[in-house]
Specification:
Layout lengths: L6 E5 L4 H12 L3 E5 L3 H13 L6 E3 L7 H15 L4 E4 L14 H29 L2 E6 L12 H21 L4 E8 L2 E2 L16 E2 H12 L9 E4 L7
Parallel strand pairs: 1-2, 1-4, 2-3, 4-5, 5-6, 6-9, 7-8
Protein name: SDR family oxidoreductase
GO molecular function: oxidoreductase activity, acting on the CH-OH group of donors, NAD or NADP as acceptor
Family: Belongs to the short-chain dehydrogenases/reductases (SDR) family.
Length: 240
């Protein structure tokens, strides 16, 4: 599980899987640049990391993942402070779950802007440094619904299918440069993402945010010659 002194960027890190992953990697000595729109929550994460005396450093850079200038600033901060980027975890995302005729155009645009455009914008910003360095690892936190659909999920699943296609093409483009691409496909996770919120009785046997953080640690700490192209994980109680 060696991530000592690796530089990691994580989007959507103010809460949930992104936040838990940032803490776990920092505990193992990684330097983590976290971004999300909620600057206060990011600062709380930095404070917690400092008080916990984690081995790595966490740096907060608030921004909108779909905004090119914001994400260029995230990458610049990582390079200014740590000189290189080893890992990018595209974790920012959210969902709207309605039947097609109930979804507004604004809802469609907003979900696609975060889940799809955001993945593209931050990846594009980080790639030049990784290419020049001849190594890197891009992780996209998708969902098992990147490979299946369900009623009421047209918008969310469309965004995750788009991420899946993006990763497939990206993987072919960057492997010659020594850059890894991993798609993470999780099932049900007990987090704020779901309608009933974190810690509800109905989700007590779902995956925990810490389970996902451990998964991320495993994925990004493999030896240089090993790439996990796809990583699918579910709670035992979820039918698959």
């Amino acid at each position: 599980m060696n991530v000592e002194n690796k530089t990691v960027i994580i989007s959507g890190a103010s809460r949930g899987i992104g936040r838990a992953t940032a803490m776990r990697l920092a505990e193992h000595g990684a330097n983590v640049v976290v971004t999300a729109r909620n600057g206060d929550e990011l600062n709380q994460l930095v404070t917690e990391a400092t008080q916990s005396h984690v081995r790595g450093k966490i740096v907060a850079v608030p921004g909108d993942v779909s905004n090119e200038a914001d994400m260029a600033n995230v990458v610049k901060t990582a390079l200014d402070q740590f000189q290189h980027i080893d890992v990018l975890i595209n974790n920012a995302g959210y969902g709207v779950f309605k039947n097609v005729d109930e979804i507004s155009v604004d809802e469609w645009d907003n979900v696609m802007a975060t889940n799809v455009k955001g993945t593209f914008v931050l990846t594009k910003a980080a790639l030049p440094s990784m290419k020049s360095h001849g190594s890197g690892h891009i992780v996209v936190v998708a969902s098992d619904v990147a490979k299946r659909t369900f009623a009421g999920g047209s918008l969310y699943t469309a965004s995750k299918y788009a991420q899946e296609a993006f990763m497939g093409a990206l993987r072919k483009e960057v492997r010659p440069f020594g850059i890894k691409v991993t798609g993470v496909y999780s099932g049900l996770v007990d987090s704020h993402f779901h309608e009933k919120g974190h810690g509800h009785e109905t989700s007590k046997n779902w995956l925990k945010e810490e389970d996902m953080a451990e998964s991320m640690l495993f994925i990004v700490s493999r030896p240089a010659h090993v790439v996990i192209d796809e990583f699918m994980v579910h709670p035992l109680e979820q039918e698959y």
